[in-house]
Amino acid sequence: MVDANAHCEAFAASYVRLVVTAADEHWLAAACDALCGYGASVIGCDAEVGVDQRLDATATPDGRPGASILAFHFTKEKVARAAANRVGQGLLTCPTAAVFDGLPESTDRAPLGDYLRYFGDGHQRREGSDWVVPVMEGEVALPATMGVGRGVAGGALVVCGRDQATALAATRRAADSLHDMPGVITPFPGGVCRSGSKVGSRYRGLVASTNEAYCPTLRDAVESELPKGTGAAYELVINGVDEPAVRAALARAIEAMAGAPLLAVTASDYGGRLGAVRISLSDLLK
Description:
By secondary structure, the protein is an alpha+beta fold. It has helices spanning 25-36, 76-91, 113-116, 164-176, 243-256, 281-285, and strands spanning 7-21, 48-55, 66-73, 98-101, 109-111, 125-127, 130-135, 138-143, 145-147, 149-161, 184-185, 197-199, 208-210, 232-240, 264-266, 277-280. Strands 1, 2, 3, 4, 10, 11, 14, 15 and 16 form a 9-stranded antiparallel beta sheet that branches. The longest helix has 16 residues, at 76-91.
């Protein structure tokens, strides 16, 4: 089932980790949804964002239900601005939500409260490492800065099945196996991408376009990479805090699909045009 000759190609990316808490599970879900929304791909989104772990009250700074959220982009500047804007729109507005820097040990810093404090319109105040901003609910404390790390994004498997239901069920099982795996996210809807892309396009200005080699309806019109009989294929895209995290997640995903009636689990290789990180699927099988 697994194509041992395939390599998935990923790229280096900057990331931030934010710990979000709220008064209860309802408002925590609302905060996470708002912070992570429209965060599937840097092709069109300001960042790739997702929950890497749910945290119970014993594991959060303020003893409330929480979640660890990762956001990725190519550069520190882009991911920092995206994260600050998302906190401003998605968390500052969310009832009971609080936010904490998830990388306090990082010496590479970017503004968070230093950027959002101006919403206080002169009524904000500095308390230790936080800016405290008055809001209609009371006050919100925002870390002045947030740590920035260097990780890996875009590690992807292509799951091929005879029909949509078979391929999707296996890919969903793989995505579900990564829920709460520390240090990784699957940023696409439900953890699965149906519109896998390639680097570049025949149209000027597009940095990415449909990966026609894996589109079943184009099998007779292009040089297809799909196994014979494939009716549907899906991508499972993984971002992680480092290459070992991505490798571990890819291996777990493959293991989760063991026994599924698939035609192939493979990967796209772009000859280095996407990134310098190449992960052999044969290595993952070991």
